[in-house]
Specification:
By secondary structure, the chain is mainly α.
């Protein structure tokens, strides 16, 4: 009696699908975040309107009509308000959402599962927050002009002003990432108050840095604040006749601070993502 051998099915080689390049994935994530930013434009407008424009209204319109401040204070103050909008908007755009993503919603896990290095995820967050800060600076300029009735205009200084605002926004975004990835969720609001207050009031927003020569200790304290170099860079680009820090000093300090905070922020982001 013979038995029929059952034929064995042929084995089909299954090749894994090739992973898309990390650069292509990074650009796709950026496009998605840019679409979200366009939809949340009103949020950026609200962030711009709250602190910078109210400060401009009170210090110029209210105090100006009472004769407490001079008539030329608005042009001196507006560059500082532009710097404030760039740095603080970028900081808030990355710090608070990142705290929620790592703490409550855990939405960051979807980004971390994308086929690209974790460091690129962090850089993408920094890029979007920086663009939001730069957009806030661009919006506060005409809005501030409407509030005070005039604004300094110097086309030759616009490239330097934009570059300084861009670096200031990147510094704010990197600082926000450092805070969001190192502090406990319960302390983030208190830390914001502790950090934002000296940043605002020692950042030469209301006054040029060289005029603090009569208060050397306070001048030295403001020199430790990166906001000082954003304010002075924008002010020097738009109002070169006013005493200010040289542009090369502002750019050098901002590049160095941005590089150091970016390295620290990406490192803390990677460590938090692993945890």
């Amino acid at each position: 009696m013979t038995t029929l051998d059952t034929p064995t099915p042929a084995r089909v080689a299954v090749h894994p699908r090739p992973r898309p390049p990390a650069g292509r994935v990074f650009l796709a994530v950026l496009r998605r975040d840019l679409m979200v930013t366009r939809r949340e434009l009103w949020v950026i407008l609200l962030q711009v309107a709250l602190t910078p424009l109210f400060m401009l209204f009170v210090f110029d319109t209210v105090l100006g009509r009472q004769g407490i401040v001079g008539p030329g204070f608005a042009e001196l103050f507006l560059p500082g308000v532009i710097a404030l909008a760039a740095l603080t908007t970028a900081l808030q755009s990355i710090a608070l959402p990142l705290v929620k993503e790592f703490g409550f919603t855990m939405e960051i896990e979807d980004r971390l599962l994308a086929p690209m290095p974790t460091g690129l995820v962090a850089i993408g967050k920094l890029v979007i927050a920086t663009l939001r800060g730069l957009l806030a600076a661009a919006l506060v300029y005409p809005l501030g002009a409407l509030v005070v009735g005039s604004a300094p205009w110097r086309p030759a200084g616009l490239p330097v002003a934009v570059l300084v605002a861009l670096l200031g926004a990147w510094v704010g975004a990197a600082l926000g990432m450092c805070l969001a990835t190192t502090l406990p969720v319960q302390r983030i609001n208190v830390t914001f108050s502790v950090i934002l207050t000296p940043i605002i009031w020692t950042g030469c927003i209301h006054y040029p840095w060289p005029r603090l020569s009569s208060m050397p200790w306070y001048q030295a304290a403001t020199a430790l604040n990166p906001m000082t170099y954003v304010s002075e860079g924008v002010r020097g680009a738009l109002l070169p006749e006013v005493a200010h820090l040289p542009a090369w000093i502002c750019l050098t300090v901002l590049v160095a601070v941005a590089g150091a905070l970016t390295w620290l922020g990406v490192r803390c982001f990677n460590r938090r993502a692993v945890q």
